[in-house]
């Protein structure tokens, strides 16, 4: 046999602390057919700075779809089926780098996904630039060993093969046809080269993670051994590995036989019936009469053989609505007939490779009037790759190499729903059958009707009122995740364990909005001291900060007067410009120079905020430059007057020192104390402290200016003068 090794690599990604699925870094690989060995090379590294500590990285694996993970231990939505993901932990201790290998023999072909993340996020709000986070990098590489000439086992034809040695197992494959209800594998004539009784182990199927349903069979001696499989995967290659358990130098000769039991579909799966149904919906067209005539004759023949068919297939149309959004429409109407004689089968196609990043929702509604037996139950199974063709009370919707999801409706419980999170890329099947407590004989010819709604959505229920559905991308692959707020959690933001009450949400909104009213004293002081430009800036800041925080709130206490991004930009701009004009006002510059710096600084601040809105230097840069100007101006004034400036000790004790203290406390709260839990009151304290510091730091008005002296400020071209001289009139 000829083996070919292949290597696939993707660029490294910077890991994040986990708070929602968007923090997990996803790697998407495609394993080719006839792969006998898969090896993952996982490389994790961290920075060398003092801020880098020991860290544990969790890596999840899954075949067919992104792994469904729950690092926070939150609740999933009701009716959602969750199976734990396969994961390993990589520890970065004293070593800067860690390399780990993960081997998978006979892996399933198709899409494989790896998700990696750091532990739960601490919830602290860090200002960009104040601290340097430690970079934790992760990279996944894939090595595959593929067999180029894997022998094909033809159904119904015995084929002799030789296992060369225990170190070199034999790999063969067989193609499973459509409508295969069962498969029987038989191994016989097992003889070693030393003419001794041989012992071999047969592994059927491929390994899939997180759960693997690979079937094992151990054969000893020359007697025949066989294994029967129900509902093997349709239209797929099934890999079979035979390995010798004997001595190291002995070869083994075996003979293998694979046979299938084919299920005959009923009349509703007829292609001609499907064509005639489309023609009846589209209306009569020229030349359509000749093609519809055979369909009319085909239906009675298939109907007569309905009793011998093992399933009744209903035609389903896949309707693509948007990215990771599909609706399935039944051509015969949403209501399908269900009998006890054979299961009714619906095909839900999810094999495009771009459908595994959403949630598959299947909803069943039983028409109670259609069921003549009160104690009858409609059992349903949703499975991938192959349908469940034998539904009864004892089976749990399992097929040959997968585990399906059971559903049931009855007259006492007429509704049922199933949510499959991140369904694997494959053909999915919905099987329905009418069951009776005393067996199928009790049902007789009874029939029920079930309304089926099936669709694929990016996020179930659009993440609810306390979540936001985000479309995530890894190279060309798209998948969706829910980002929760207001303390809600879970996959679809349905876990209210730590949820904020409506009263808490209203309190948070009131604190963050009404705390901006503390700018009113600063505005009044600015107007009283005739700093009208500064007062206008403070009014602008108070207005947009109030309505930005009213729009930024999670939950129900939200009010947006304009676009969120516009409100955020105006709030940030007003905050920085307020600091800029306050410090320049304290510098006591000449009016023309002060106003030129006002305008020029505002334009530069607007530009820098557009480049990086959350950068710390957008605030620190203007502050430091304005402080430099202020210190230079104060030194100039002091040298000119030959004493300290400001000269009044009362100005320092009662105004400057309290204002500077409030400003430093505000910066400390803003930079080091804010978390996601205490944000609504720590940020409100920031509003109050900044507004109060502005009121203290504004310089007094000029001594020669009188407050509200409007008549002195407004110059007129003509003035009316009063002549106080008395005129003397001569009396004659």
From TrEMBL:
Location(s) in or outside the cell: Cell membrane
Key words of the record: Cell membrane, Disulfide bond, EGF-like domain, Membrane, Transmembrane, Transmembrane helix
Residue ranges, compositional bias (Low complexity): 285-301
Keyword ATP-binding assigned: no
Annotated stretches, region: Disordered: 285-313
GO cellular component entries: plasma membrane
Cystine pairings recorded for this chain: 459-469, 484-493
Similarity remark: Belongs to the TMEM8 family.
Full protein name: TMM8A factor
Organism phylogeny: Eukaryota, Metazoa, Chordata, Craniata, Vertebrata
């Amino acid at each position: 046999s000829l083996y070919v090794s292949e290597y696939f690599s993707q660029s490294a990604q910077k890991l994040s602390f986990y708070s929602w699925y968007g923090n997990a870094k996803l790697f998407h690989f495609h394993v080719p057919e006839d792969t006998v060995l898969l090896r993952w090379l996982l490389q994790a590294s961290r920075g060398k700075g003092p801020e880098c500590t020991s860290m544990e990285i969790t890596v999840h694996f899954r075949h067919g779809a992104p792994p469904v993970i729950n690092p926070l231990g939150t609740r999933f939505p009701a009716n959602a089926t969750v199976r734990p993901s396969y994961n390993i932990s990589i520890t970065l201790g004293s070593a800067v780098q860690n390399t780990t290998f993960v081997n998978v023999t006979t892996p399933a072909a198709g899409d494989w996904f790896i998700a990696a993340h750091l532990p739960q996020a601490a919830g602290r709000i860090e200002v960009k630039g104040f601290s340097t986070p430690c970079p934790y990098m992760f990279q996944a590489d894939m090595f595959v060993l593929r067999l180029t000439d894997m022998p094909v086992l033809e159904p119904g034809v015995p084929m002799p093969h030789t296992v060369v040695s225990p170190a070199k197992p034999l790999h063969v494959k067989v193609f499973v046809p459509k409508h295969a209800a069962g498969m029987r594998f038989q191994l016989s004539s097992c003889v070693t080269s030393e003419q001794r009784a041989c012992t071999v182990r047969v592994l059927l199927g491929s390994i899939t993670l997180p759960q693997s349903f690979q079937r094992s069979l151990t054969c000893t001696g020359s007697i025949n051994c066989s294994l029967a499989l129900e509902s093997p995967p349709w239209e797929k290659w099934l890999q079979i590995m035979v390995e010798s358990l004997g001595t190291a130098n002995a070869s083994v000769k075996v003979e293998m036989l694979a046979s299938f039991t084919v299920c005959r579909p009923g009349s509703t799966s007829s292609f001609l019936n499907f064509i005639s149904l489309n023609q009846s919906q589209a209306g009569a067209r020229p030349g359509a009469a000749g093609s519809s005539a055979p369909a009319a004759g085909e239906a009675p023949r298939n109907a007569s053989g309905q009793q011998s068919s093992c399933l009744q297939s209903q035609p389903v149309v896949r309707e693509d609505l948007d990215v990771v959004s599909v609706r399935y429409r039944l051509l015969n109407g949403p209501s399908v007939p269900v009998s006890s004689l054979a299961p009714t089968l619906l095909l839900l196609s999810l094999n495009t490779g771009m459908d595994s990043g959403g949630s598959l929702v299947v909803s069943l509604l039983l028409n109670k009037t259609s069921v003549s037996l009160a104690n009858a139950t409609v059992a349903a199974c949703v499975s991938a790759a192959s349908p469940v063709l034998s539904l009864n009370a004892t089976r749990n919707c399992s097929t040959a190499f997968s585990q399906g999801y059971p559903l049931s409706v009855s007259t006492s419980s007429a509704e049922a729903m199933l949510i499959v999170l991140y369904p694997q890329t494959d053909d999915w099947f919905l099987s329905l059958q009418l069951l009776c407590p005393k067996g199928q004989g009790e049902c007789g010819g009874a029939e029920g009707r079930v309304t089926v709604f099936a669709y694929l959505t990016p996020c179930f229920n659009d993440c609810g009122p306390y979540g936001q559905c985000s479309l995530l991308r890894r190279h060309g692959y798209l998948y969706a995740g829910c980002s929760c707020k207001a303390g809600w959690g879970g996959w679809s933001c349905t876990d209210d364990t730590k949820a904020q009450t409506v009263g808490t949400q209203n309190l948070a909104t009131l604190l963050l909005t009404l705390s901006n009213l503390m700018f009113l004293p600063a505005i009044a002081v600015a107007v009283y001291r005739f700093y009208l430009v500064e007062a206008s800036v403070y009014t602008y800041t108070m207005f947009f900060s109030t309505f930005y925080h009213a729009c930024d709130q999670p939950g129900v206490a939200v009010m947006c007067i304009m676009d969120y991004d516009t409100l955020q930009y105006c709030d940030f701009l007003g905050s920085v410009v307020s600091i800029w004009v306050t410090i320049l006002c304290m510098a006591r510059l000449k009016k023309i120079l002060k106003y030129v710096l006002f305008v020029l600084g505002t334009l530069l601040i607007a530009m820098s905020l557009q480049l990086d809105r959350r950068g710390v230097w957008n605030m620190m840069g203007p502050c430091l430059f304005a402080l430099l100007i202020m210190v230079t101006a104060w030194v100039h004034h002091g040298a000119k007057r030959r004493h300290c400036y400001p000269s009044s000790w009362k100005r320092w004790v009662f105004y400057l020192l309290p204002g500077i203290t409030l400003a430093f406390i505000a910066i400390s709260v803003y930079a080091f104390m804010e978390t996601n839990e205490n944000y609504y009151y720590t940020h409100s304290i920031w509003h109050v402290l900044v507004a109060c510091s502005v009121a203290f730091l504004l310089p007094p008005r000029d001594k020669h200016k009188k407050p509200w002296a409007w008549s002195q400020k407004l110059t007129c071209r003509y003035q009316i003068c009063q002549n106080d001289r008395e005129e003397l009139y001569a009396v004659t």
